[in-house]
Design brief:
mainly alpha; transmembrane; UPF0718_permease; DUF318; transmembrane helix; cell membrane
């Protein structure tokens, strides 16, 4: 129904020609914008109900009782279902450290939370099928777990800003909600989140529409295809300055894949945008000294590039 409406609006009502640059770009924009916002509204509401069971205090309590390996896996999994992003890094980091959560476990959470989430899973599933969706989620979790384990083994606690160790957050009370209150929370959360992310979605769809309608296929295949050995690090480098969430970057990913960009390169770009943004570096610099911050970004970037090269080889 959405596709039929997009075709009618673009080619019948406006009168653009199918196959023309502008026609294909506008059709892509209308169709993807409507589809993405419909998916987001339904998905965010449903997941917000689930998220109402995971307050920051409850998350801290769960992670504080788990150590290396088990803690890293659990932290990465919790990162996919908790409503925290890089903007929440400072208070969460302080709370985790004060609660006795190991540094490596904390970083597994910080990598997973912005990069791997249910919105990305459902949107990727709807656009590319379950195989691509599960590949992204699986590799994202793997990057978060391995990065956290490596950082934990490096014993870099001394490179956390000194004031963090001096702060005592204390034990907060976990407030239980009725199911009706959880539904109200989910409604409000969905509305507030859509208000925050709609510009990123529209910009992302707009860039994707431009790529879909105007960028020649052979251009991207030549510069970012599987035959270019530098395509993956270039994709990661391009992704770092961008600041978006999965909902905003997925339309760009769809357009890049339709133009022939290798899947590993696309995955690396998407992970870099969501997990290695410059705003995140600025936020984390308030709690991490330079050596640990550079180490964190370096380990995650290398892990993402390994994932990109691996999937370019096998797919």
């Amino acid at each position: 129904m959405i596709k039929s409406f997009a075709d009618y609006l673009t080619f019948t009502l406006i009168g653009l020609q199918p196959g023309s640059h502008l026609g294909e770009a506008l059709n892509f924009f209308v169709y993807d914008t409507l589809k993405i916002f419909l998916l987001l509204t339904v998905i965010i509401f449903c997941v917000a109900v689930i998220r109402s069971w995971f307050s920051p205090e409850r998350t801290r309590r769960i992670l504080s009782h788990n150590r290396e390996y088990v803690g890293n896996v659990l932290a990465a999994l919790l990162g996919t279902v908790t409503p925290f992003c890089s903007c929440s890094a400072v208070p969460l980091f302080i709370g985790f450290v004060e609660s006795g959560v190991p540094l490596g476990v904390t970083f597994s959470f910080l990598v997973s939370a912005p990069m791997v989430n249910e919105v990305a899973l459902i949107m990727l599933w709807g656009m590319f099928g379950w195989k691509i969706a599960l590949i992204y989620i699986g590799t994202g979790l793997l990057v978060a777990i391995v990065s956290g384990i490596v950082i934990g083994r490096l014993k870099m606690e001394k490179h956390v800003q000194d004031y963090v160790w001096q702060i005592k957050v204390g034990e907060g009370e976990v407030v239980e909600q009725t199911f009706r209150e959880k539904l109200v929370y989910a409604r409000d959360y969905t509305r507030d989140l859509l208000k925050k992310i709609w510009p990123y979605v529209v910009i992302g769809v707009g860039l994707g529409a431009f790529i879909h309608g105007y960028v020649p296929q052979d251009f991207l295949v030549r510069w970012a295809g599987r035959d270019n050995p530098f395509a993956v690090p270039v994709a990661v480098a391009l992704g770092v300055p961008l600041y978006s969430n999965a909902a905003g970057v997925i339309p760009i990913v769809q357009a890049l894949m339709s133009k022939g960009m290798a899947i590993g390169t696309v995955l690396a770009f998407m992970m870099a945008v969501t997990a290695l943004s410059l705003p995140e570096a600025v936020i984390l610099s308030n709690v991490l000294k330079r050596k640990l911050l550079v180490t964190f970004f370096g380990i995650v970037a290398v892990a993402i590039m390994i994932v990109g090269y691996l999937f370019n080889l096998i797919l």
